[in-house]
Structure formats: C-alpha cells, structure tokens
Amino acid sequence: MSSKLIDLQHISKSYNGNIILDDLSLYIRENEFLTLLGPSGCGKTTTLRILGGFESPDQGHVIFGGKDITKLPPNKRQLNTVFQKYALFTHMTIAENIAFGLKIKNKSKAYINDKIAYALKLVNLDGYGNRMPDSLSGGQQQRIAIARAIVNEPKVLLLDEPLGALDLKLRQDMQYELIRLKNELGITFIYVTHDQEEALTMSDTIVVMNQGYIQQIGTPERIYNEPENAFVADFIGDSNIIDSLMIHDELVEILGAKFACVDKGFGTNKPVDVVIRPEDVELREPGKGSMEGVVTHLIFKGVHYEMEVMANGFEWLVHSTSMFPVGTKVSIHVDPYNIQIMNKPVSEDEEAVAINE
Q1: Whole-angstrom distance, CA of residue 69 vs CA of residue 207
Q2: Is the whole model's pTM more than 0.70, yes or no?
Q3: Tell me, which fold does domain 4-225 have in CATH?
C-alpha cells in the first residue's frame, strides 16, 4: 500500500457567511488517482484550490510529505494545476508554452529542450513544438496544458474539470490518456469532476462530496455497488431508491412485497432506504417474481433497453438486454445480493461517516 502523501486536517472554508467546507478531513496516498466528485457547489474545487495554495482555509491544516504547507504560496508547492480553461499563452509557440515554468526556474537551454521533447512525446504531440495554440484542437490544447504541468516534475498534478470543454469522443479518449500518463509518470493525480462516468473510469479512489461534507470514500466498485446513503446511490449512476421496511435480518418489505436480502443488523420492523440498480431488476413472466407490474416506457440505448415498469405504485427503472414492449405484463425479481439496505438519515443534512479505506 502506498504511503500517505497529503493530509487535509479539519479544513473549513466560508465565503460571505456561506459554509463551503465544513471540518473536512482527507488523506491522499502517493501515486494515487483520487477524484473529488460531486454536484456544483459541493466544495470540490475549493478543496483543490486550498491544496494548490490558491485559497487559504479558515481553519485546518494542509500537510504535504509530513510538512505543514498551509501558508505556503502556490509556486513553493510541489504541485501543478491543470484547469478546464487551458490558459495557454496565445502569443507563444507550443514549445514556449511548455518551457515557461522552466525558464522562470532558470533551467539551462539544453535541459529545457530535452524536457520539451520528452513532454510532447508523452502527450503524443511529437513535432508540434513550433505551432501556435490556436492551430490546435481543444483536445490537443488540453494535452499541451498537461505537458506544461508535467515538465515541472510535480509530485502531484491537480486537475480541475480539465475535460469539461471537450466533446464526448474526445473526452473519452483523454480519459484513457490521463490513465496512461498517471501510470507512466508515477505521480499522484487529484481530479475534480461532476461527471460520474469520468470518476468511475479513471479513479483508484473516489471521494463523493455534497454541501461541504464528504459523503463516502472508496474504490469505484465500492462506491457504485455499496453506496452508504441515498445521495451517493442517486448521484452515482441510476438507481431505484425506495422507502421500505426491514422486517428482520435478511428479509425486507418493498412496496408491500417481501424480498430476501443478505443484510443484517438493521433491527426489526425498521424503516430503511432500499437501493436497487436498474440492471439488477430482472423481468420475468407474470407470477414468476415477487411483484407484478406493467411496462410503461421503452427506450433503446444501444447496449441495452431502458424500461419503466409500474408496480405497486412505483415506477421502476429497468435496464435489460431483453426487450419487453410497452403494455407487457411482467413480474419483478431481484437477487438478494443486489438489494442494498441503508439506514434512513436522522435529518436531511446528516452526512455519512466517511472512512478513508
């Protein structure tokens, strides 16, 4: 297991009386690809800016490699930031853009030329050094922004929604590029996005945030398959989230029908939230499942069909490779392992206890 590189300790930040981060603690390991994921205004970019030294926390400490860097300016930190707006100098060539930070550090011409060639090769833009930024596509400009950050040999690369301005195909291509770069460079990536697919595709660890709190920390698989609360379940992919009743261990009542599950320790006759992913809802012939329903909507999505099934007063979202036309009577079955039981929050803003595992 990689060692701890960054430790954010009890970070709080407010703007004009609005709390953006509320006692946030988080650590990041060496060589980790960690993604801060959440909706607009959740505090993820503020966290990144505090890490980069562009903002100061009202309270708390930023520990980097065992040293407190909370008051250190950005240019004294072993971090480089890549923003959504590439911020390339339009009057400079690509080579001059890449060399900018190295010239400030008074590196030799030979060293700078070697670094330019290395960086261009790394981002698959060999031979582009003499071109101007406005002659490049958005994806190419983003690669140059990454190359400019990489040549400074940071221990950590901070990426603030860097693919947000690209079209879907380019964005997907760049996701694979970033994974490749991270593996080749062996540096720590801290990535900010509101795009769940990006987070699931690229990350070693995802930190789901909402309203200044960490909601859950875990691997992409764990975040998707075992959400700790309804917010995480709803934000990461599609979900059926249903008010239910835990009758006793391994038996839950969903919309009046009894379903076997594998969860224990929730008590007897206790109100709970149940999360069932659309791909885990199995449609069968009438009478062959736990609940009867009828297909009300059908859309072809390419890889699968997306259907809505009205059953016991609830509109179930279903993803299946089998097609059931609108109006078809069906029975719903869910494997016990695919039923996720969660405690109901005591209050609306109760955040999950996050354990950095």
Answers
A1: 22
A2: yes
A3: Rossmann fold (3.40.50)
| The architecture CATH gives domain 239-343 | Beta Barrel (2.40)
Question: 169-216: per-residue pLDDT in tens?
Answer: 778 888 888 888 888 888 899 999 998 989 999 999 999 999 999 999
Q: Which of 177, 86, 82, 172 is nearest to 136 (CA)?
A: 86
